[in-house]
Design a protein that fits this description.
The protein is mainly α. The protein has 2 helices and no strands. The protein has a domain of about 45 residues.
């Protein structure tokens, strides 16, 4: 901070002032750790993405296979009679055979 004042955070937040020399010596070590673990991070992210996509596909397939006879957005105000009449005609044809 350029001026005196209260730092952001709650009373339990802890700030540590590190000397510049310590930070300059720690930077290559932190960079090395990042470079070493970067491939593992990439592999973990790829596995996570593939797993998530597979799970979404399984859930989508399961949801698509579940069927309920009632669809609240469809009205069937004119179609039910025709469907029932067609079934009745089919039943009459089957009885006549």
């Amino acid at each position: 901070m350029e001026q005196e004042g209260v730092l952001p955070g709650s009373g339990t937040t802890r700030y540590i002032k590190a000397p510049v020399a310590v930070m300059l010596m720690a930077a290559p070590v932190i960079g090395l750790v990042f470079a070493v673990f970067l491939p593992f991070i990439g592999i973990a992210m790829t596995v996570s993405l593939v797993g998530r996509k597979l799970a979404e596909g399984v859930v989508s397939a399961a949801a698509g296979s579940m069927s309920f006879g009632w669809r609240p957005i469809e009205s069937y105000l004119a179609g039910k009679k025709k469907r029932n009449e067609a079934r009745a005609k089919k039943d009459k044809k089957d009885v006549g055979k």
